[in-house]
Fold this protein.
Amino acid sequence: MKDHYINPFDDDKHSFLVLLNTLKQYSLWPQFAPVPAGWLVVFGPHPKTECCEYIEKHWTDIRL
């Protein structure tokens, strides 16, 4: 049986962070990965679903 590859950024078994940049844009980020320069952790680590809910609640217009 062939193993299935799961992108670790999409793997719900990991804890995630919510990041915010200077343009007030949010990003869902896995806790195990280094936070990129210019981004600030504003929520987490939490399960992916909780981080997604946080983004939906706080990022009112994703076009910005």
